[in-house]
Amino acid sequence: MKRKGFIILLWVTLGTALFFFLFFTKEKSFHNFLITLLISTMYSFILGLGNAFINDFLNKKFPWSETTGMRTVLSVVSIIIGNFILVYFCNYISYVEIQKVATAEVFFSKEYTTRNWFMINIALLISAFLHAKGFMEELKKTSRKEVVEQKLIAKSANAQFESLKNQLDPHFLFNSLNVLSSLIDENPIQAQKFTASMSKIYRYVLEQKDKELVTVENEIEFAKTYCDLLKTRFEDSVDFTFEVKKEDYRRYVVPLSLQLLLENCIKHNFATSSRPLVIKIFSDNDTLCIENNLQAREQMKESAGIGLANIVQRYALLTKKNVFIEKSEDYFKVKVPILSDKPNSNSVKTDNENGSYEKARKRVKELKSFYANLICYFTVIPFLIVINLMTSPQNLWFYFPMLGWGIGVASHAFQIFGVGESWKEKKIREIMDKQKNRNNGNLR
């Protein structure tokens, strides 16, 4: 028993001693008070420590959280037998040894049976209350433990998901710059068009990469723009077909999944004008399919390991539906699930503390998104300026992506630091405070 339990037993001993001394003792003397205190101490500590020992023993051997049914039966049996023995022992010491109002033969006769059973019933009620209290405390501990474990699991999954999403940003930028470098030598005019479109696409990447899911419609529109970039480079060597059902447009997929899968098709297959690579994007039975005719490259470049594995892992963290891969001698197909609803990851966080945490986390995400956009701007634009001045100094085309992307960065900054949600909340709070002060003034 813990220190708190001993303190409670001491207060119970003192309270019962005073109660019986004041209301049931005829001769009020110090000697009688000591006897009453001794008897109260005996009952309180023997019954208290006995039941505490039984409860602690059962908690170790048969915890409530693991063996609830068996523990209930054992608790009932143990408190009946235990209190029967303890009460008879305390009554025997009290009546025979301390007060000396009965002999051993009289105590075990019918004369004291009713009195003993009355004391046993009181002890059973108190003991049942204490065991029920212990059960509730154990239930609360188990519930708290489960909540903490679920939060840890959720945080771990969220951290893993964030790690997977953060692969997309540098991965896309790296591959896009590689394509641009190739185009500069092959076709400078097409490189200019590619650069102008890349800034628009990269903006989408920055906006969507922090989301768990996006609509099929948004992903298809982005994929079409990305396909235009690929057509800029490969011209008639690649061909794209989109046959997605209109009713699936309002459903959800993992963001940038199409871009990664389209990129895989280009990376793992060769494409020529005589043997074009045909890529089909269509919906089929709650899945979004990306299929291409198989024209595998003989010599593959070393892969970064990002792409299909990334999509599979992100879906695994969001749903039980699987990503399917089909491969034959003629074609390669990937099926990603189309989800009807967004997962509600914040349903557990309903109290004020978690609400504040969610607002803070959202604000941090917004700041991270802006600074990522700003860093990429000051990384890519100087690179484009150098390429422009080295290849065609008479034709300064870098102004277009610099101004277009710069306007986007300025708009992003104005949204975060100017008229964003935080600014709205501040204004609403100021208006409410003014109204509250005005009402208080009227009341005075």
Number of strands: 7
How far apart the termini lie comes to 57 Å
Q: How would you state the average pLDDT, rounded? A: 75
The sequence of SSEs as H and E is HHHHHHHEHEEHEEHEEHHH
- Radius of gyration, CA atoms, in whole angstroms: 38 Å
| Uncertain segments | 345-353, 419-423
Beta strand %: 5-15%
Global structural class: alpha+beta
Major sheet description: 5 strands, mixed
Report on the architecture of this protein.
The structure is a single chain. The strands form 2 sheets. Strands 2-4-5-7-6 form a 5-stranded mixed β-sheet, with helices on one face. Strands 1-3 form a two-stranded antiparallel ribbon. With 444 residues, it is of the alpha+beta class. Helices cover 69% and strands 8% of the residues. Among the domains are: 3-155, no CATH class; 211-343, Histidine kinase-like ATPase, C-terminal domain (Heat Shock Protein 90, 2-Layer Sandwich), CATH 3.30.565. α7 (188-208) packs antiparallel against α11 and α7 (188-208) packs parallel to α12. The radius of gyration is 38 Å and the shape is elongated. The chain starts with a helix and ends with a helix. One of its GO terms (molecular function) is phosphorelay sensor kinase activity. Residues 358-433 form the 2TM domain. This is Histidine kinase. Keywords: Kinase, Membrane, Transferase, Transmembrane, Transmembrane helix. The chain crosses the membrane at residues 7-24, 30-53, 73-96, 116-136, 370-390, 396-419.
